[in-house]
Amino acid sequence: MFRPSARKRYVNLLRELAIAQFKLKDQSAFLGFLWSFLHPLVMIGILFALFKVKAGQSIEHYAIYLLIGVVQYTHFSNSTSRSMTVLYSMRQLTSDAIFPKEVLVLSGVIADFVEFVFSMIICIIIAVLSGVVLSSAILLLPLVWALQFVLVLSVSLLLSCLYVFVRDVAHIYQAFLRLLLFITPIFYDMSFLEAGPGRYILWLNPLAHLIYFSRTVIIGGSRFPVGSSMLLLFATCALFFCSLKIFKNYEPTFTENL
Amino acid sequence: MSLPSPKICDVPSAIRAQNVGKLFPRGKSYDTAFRTLTKRLFGGLGRTESFSALKDISFEIFKGEKIAIVGNNGAGKTTLLRVIAGLCRPTTGEIQVDGDMILLRGLDVGMVDELSAAENLFLYGSIYGLDKEKIKAKFHDIFKWAELEAFAGAKLGTFSSGMKARLAFSAVRYFEAEIFLLDEAFSATDRNFKTKYEEVFRKQRNSDQTFLIATHDLDFARMFCTKTLWLDEGEQMAFDSTEKVLKLYTEGKAT
Questions:
Q1: Is residue B186 very low, low, confident or very high in pLDDT (cuts 50, 70, 90)?
Q2: How many domains in chain A?
Q3: In angstroms, rounded to a whole number, what is the distance separating the alpha carbons of residues A103 and B247?
């Protein structure tokens, strides 16, 4: 009897799991998608009201500036937090089914990523409606998305693996995400951090770079930094291979630790 | 220890276990970051006790053999299946498996209540290696066999456990693997369904697929399995023809 090759089986499983997770997020319905927009929208509203006058004064198209930052931060924080617990919440599959377990993480990250791309497209539409003139630089946006995808996936692989062994990492990570919200230039200008020793934090923060890339591509104002984007591409790929290696290394011990 | 079955040399082995042992820490709960750190810094303060889930298990299973695993709860049946499946590393000894495997720990592993029965079928199939095209081709047959044709669009959460088991097993009939590891997969089923799945197994009796079935249903073991492995508290009590082992097992249980 013909058996589907291992690769075909892998892709089949990945697709079905991603579809299932997308449906479970209640995103297939249009209203479900709108709900997921509510939380970032409230956040944008608050930040806009608070910082428009001071921090946002010097920033052109401050609302769009905020929107891009919040959407990218929200995707990063939601997707990584959800992936962190995926091996545990699907522990029946983790501990009792025979397949490469990174599929569980990857499928969730893909489901979240689809939602993220939709959100970014809405960002662009809003930007155009509010008078932003798009340039051909917009064609670089998929590269930024790809970088964000690999970054989220790598962090998710590490966290999901860690969570199996150390449960309270969830609390620590939530605290870290709150910190990340403030050390990333989401509602203030990058120059605010660049002046002091904060520039080292800024430089080490991949999310800050990614948000900066999106803003230069959509709003414009400065040239797209080719050099640092290549460096980030290299760094995220290295991070991905390391995290996958760590994940595969611990995979055979998941069952007895869940 | 095992009786030499006829023509052993011609048949390649599917699963070979040599002195397999598995230790688990007793009463282990998950670690906190604090505990992990202190353990790293000060070494293993308050060593945890461990117990052996499997002790010195050795056997050889040949391709096409149908093996039952019997034993009381906590005997190590599940652990043994997980070790064979590669989901647990044995602490001692070695396990060799030749052939691709499917492990079924209950029929509901991979089913999601919030999705419809049809959606579940595609997800369930993909987990065990059945692709979309194949499921599409067998879709009506799977629902018909399960006697659930009217329920394809219903949410699985509304199904009784018996209905879920029927749907799952109907799909299982099309699973392809050289080795099947089944763990008390068919407990929540009624008599009508029992006749139906036993019929499926009866047809499988002379197939070249290897089956390892952990079960409490001794009649089923007699019907389907040529050999039986008896485990008790992690120890291998007997591995021989089903008839002999079950005689020992039922006598042993009585005392």
A1: low
A2: 1
A3: 45
- Per-residue pLDDT of A225-248, as tens digits, reads 888 899 999 999 999 999 999 999
Q: Of A107, A114, A72, whose CA–CA distance to A86 is shortest?
A: A107
Q: A20 CB near a chain B CB, below 8 Å?
A: yes
Q: Which domain holds residue B143?
A: 22-251
Phi, psi of B137 (to 5 degrees): -65, -35
Q: Which helix (H) or strand (E) holds B20?
A: strand B13-25
Q: Are A209 and A228 in contact (CB under 8 A)?
A: yes
What is the pLDDT at residue A5?
A: 76
Nearest CA in chain B to A22: B115
CB-CB under 8 Å, B103 with A98: yes
Largest CA distance in chain B: 62
For the segment A193-204, the average pLDDT, to the nearest whole number, is 83
User: Please, is B33 exposed, middle or buried when counting C-beta atoms within 10 Å of its C-beta (0-12, 13-18, 19+)?
Assistant: middle
Calculate how close chain A gets to B39, using CA atoms only, in Å: 13
Interface of B with A in 45-84 (CB under 8 A): 82
Structural domain total, chain B: 1
Assess if residue B204 is contained within a domain.
yes
Measured distance CA(B186)–CA(B194) in Å, rounded: 8
CB contact under 8 A, A93 and B127: yes
Instruction: Please list the alpha-helical segments (H only) found in chain A.
Output: 6-24, 30-51, 62-84, 86-89, 91-96, 102-129, 141-165, 169-183, 191-194, 198-204, 206-218, 226-250, 254-257
* pLDDT at residue B43 in the model: 63
Query: CATH code at B200?
Result: 3.40.50.300
Residue B122, domain member (yes or no)? yes
**pTM of this prediction?**
0.88
Q: Write the pLDDT tens digit of every residue in B145-167.
A: 999 999 999 999 999 888 898 89
Portion 195-254 of B in contact with A at CB < 8 A = none
For chain B, say whether A166 makes contact (Cβ under 8 Å).
Answer: yes
Radius of gyration (C-alpha) of chain B in whole angstroms: 20
Whether B160 is covered by a domain: the verdict is: yes
**Ordered alpha helix ranges (H), chain B:** 33-42, 77-85, 117-127, 132-145, 161-172, 191-204, 218-224, 242-254
